Amino acid sequence: MRIVQRNGPDARRKLFLGSFVHCKALDELEYLHNAAVAVDKEGTIVAVERECDEVRARETVLPRLGWGEDEVEVVKAREGQFFFPGFIDTHLHASQYPNVGIFGKSTLLDWLNTYTFPLEASLADPARARQVYARVIRKTLSHGTTCAAYYATIDVPSTNLLADLCLAAGQRALVGRVCMDQLSPDYYRDATPESSLAYTRASIAHIRTIDPSLSLIRPIITPRFAPSCSLPLLRQLGALAQETRLPIQTHISENPSEIALVQQLFPPSATGAPDNSYASVYDAAGLLTERTILAHAVHLTDAEADLVAARGAKISHCPCSNSALASGAARVRWLLDRGIVCGLGTDMSGGFSPSVLEAARHAVLVSRHVSFTTAGGNSEREKLSVEEVLFLATRGGAEVVGLEGRVGKFEVGMEWDAQLVGLGVVGEDGGVGGEDEGGNVDVFGWESWPDRVAKWVYNGDDRNTKRVWVRGRLVHERR
Ligand SMILES: O=c1[nH]c(=O)c2nc[nH]c2[nH]1
């Protein structure tokens, strides 16, 4: 595995040739075979041509674009390979990466105290933060994650380091300094709402310095979740979001004990909200906006879902985490039916895997569990298809992080955030070339393309992610 470190613009124009698969609609994949996609020096797609082999691309597409042959790098998908949009991880805690898989039988509130806060606090050590953050960026890139909405910790220097490292590695990222000033250990909390605000502003200022156009890295306002934020802090963060128009990320309705805590901590008499629901608490503080990413949303009521929909807030569905911490099964179809935009989150380390593909397959399975308990036992409608979870992993995620129109599909004007996926092509002798060629995914040649993609979703892993690009730059290559 090799990480290609590039800071500056990639000077080469690129011509991608072969099969391209992307989401045309929520439940529909589009397959472009024998196609060509041209990407300019800024990483923007400038041509998508069907039925266009290399000869035709050189004879027609390049002259039309005014590109000389020797200025162009040609990248071809081989037999068994296809280009797919990069994955968008709409919710993960970079600082918790060392704890993936470590949760025992805990549930949310004891898990936070036992496993999570001590680890996050320890990342105030710059050397440790560098080690962890460098690793999580490499790991997620190697699984095809071209954009990640990261929570860091309360520590400003290490949060800023995470942003620096994302920029250096070329991963698109939203980076949030975690705000928390109550119900947290003394060793790991903001002293006052004012200091929390000041530190958050410092981190925002740093990101504006390293990426002034915010084209790759963006700050995101990050109240950890209602229980760990005082009402003044929630309100001040809501005001900051209004002032800066920056995105917001937080957690909502993940676990029944957490919800009971919110109801107890935030009575309507204090918040001024019409009721003490979790969504109303955020809304009363100005935190429920169309730029808000709400992780989990497992136990929302009808009224809360209507409020979330009315405000245009988005949901990050984290099925691996919700199963691991026994939080519950989010009703994604029910959310989608209300017009709520949903994406997928690995939620490391509540979630145990760095892979959005893993989250996608768990989203399918969790939706089947939801179907067992809906409409008397087997509601077809609740089940998410392979096409739908891939939509959540790409275009849905793009909308959740505010990047629709820039990434998530292969169209002229979109940016080339993409992965080259390779499956094992089984020869007549049963061999597949290199040992690792297709990982667990073998194709025999007679499968339809939808079946090949389904095999990838159910059995794929980083061995199938051959190369990854962000804004046209190669950021990961598997050797
Ligand atoms: O899955 C979660 N991970 C966290 O770190 C967290 N903090 C509050 N609520 C949370 N949920």
TrEMBL record:
Pathway: Purine metabolism; guanine degradation; xanthine from guanine: step 1/1. GO terms for molecular function: guanine deaminase activity; zinc ion binding. Keywords: Hydrolase, Metal-binding, Zinc. Its EC number is 3.5.4.3. Residues 84-475 form the Amidohydrolase-related domain. CDD domains: GDEase (cd01303). The keyword Hydrolase applies. Catalyzes the hydrolytic deamination of guanine, producing xanthine and ammonia. This is Probable guanine deaminase. It comes from Parachaetomium inaequale. The lineage of its organism: Eukaryota, Fungi, Dikarya, Ascomycota, Pezizomycotina.
